[in-house]
Amino acid sequence: MAIKNQASGGVSRQVLADHVYEALLVALMDGRLEAGTPVSIDGMARELDVSPTPVREALARLEATGMVRRMALRGYRVAPLFSPEELADLMDARLVIEPANAFMACKHADTQLTAQLEQAIEDLKAAPRGPSFAEFRAYWEADERFHRLIAEFADNQFLLSAYNALGGQVQRFRFFGGLGVTDADYAIAEHTEILKAFEAGDAELARQKMIDHIEGVKQRSQHDSEVRS
Questions:
Q1: Are 135 and 217 part of one and the same domain?
Q2: Same domain, 58 and 114
Q3: What's the CA gap between 188 and 170, in Å, rounded?
Q4: Which of 78, 108, 138 is the last residue of a domain?
Q5: In the predicted model, what is the mean pLDDT of residues 197-220?
Q6: In 29-78, at which residue ranges do the beta strands (DSSP E only) sit?
Q7: Per-residue pLDDT averaged across 180-190, rounded?
C-alpha cells in the first residue's frame, strides 16, 4: 500500500496529500479500516511510507465527509455504522433539502443541465456494481454528480450549504457491508423520472419525483442495513 514512490521526484505536497487521501478513502470504502476502529496516524504513515503530515491532512478532509471522527485527546476513529434511527434521520434530512433543490433547479433548467443529468444517468447504467469500492466507485461518483448538479443549479446558497453539510453521510450507509450497489435498476429508473420532469419543465413534478426517489432509497438502504446486521 506504500505510495512514497508515487509522490517522489519533486511532486508537490498537495499531490502527496491527495494520494494519501485516496488510499485512505479506498481502505474505508472497502472495509479494510473497519467501522468504529481507531486510526493511528503514525501507523498509517508507516503503512503508506510517508510522513505523518499528509496522513493528518487526509484525515481532516475525511472528517468533513463524516467517514472518520476526531475524538478529543484520542485521535481519529472510523465512523460507526448507521443505526436504523440515524439512517432514517439522514433520509428525512434529504427529503427536506433535495426536493426543494429539484423544484428550484427545474424552474430555470436549460438544455445544458438536462444533457449533464442524462450523461450522469448513462454513466450509472455503464458503471460496475460489484462489492469492492474499485467496482462500484464509478457508480457512486455518477450518482453523487447527478444530485450535485441539481443542488448547484437550484442557485440557492443556503440550500447548497445544507446539501454540502450532509457530505459523505449520504453515501456512508454503503460502508463496510461488502454489498456493492444493490439497487441500481431502481435508482436508475427513479433518476430517469426526475430527468423527464426537468425536460418537461415541470418543477412540481420534479419535486415529487425526487421525493419518490429518496423514499425509495430510504426503504432500500434500511433493508441493506438489516442484511448487514
A1: yes
A2: no
A3: 17
A4: 78
A5: 97
A6: 38-39, 68-71, 75-78
A7: 89
pLDDT of residue 180: 66
Tell me the whole-structure pTM to 2 decimals: 0.82
Kindly report the number of other CB atoms within 10 A of residue 149's CB atom: 18
Domain that holds residue 195: 84-228
- The CA distance from 29 to 27, in Å, is 6
Average pLDDT, the chain: 88
- pLDDT for res 10: 47
**Grid cell for residue 133:** 469500492
| CA separation for the pair 168, 63 (Å, rounded) | 9
Please give the span between the terminal C-alpha atoms of the chain, in angstroms, as a whole number. 30
Nearest to 33 by CA among 86, 79, 83, 84: 79
- The whole-angstrom separation of Cα 35 and Cα 86 is 15
Considering only CA atoms, give the Rg of the chain.
Answer: 19
Same domain, 107 and 171: yes
User: Using an 8 Å Cβ cutoff, are 136 and 181 in contact?
Assistant: yes
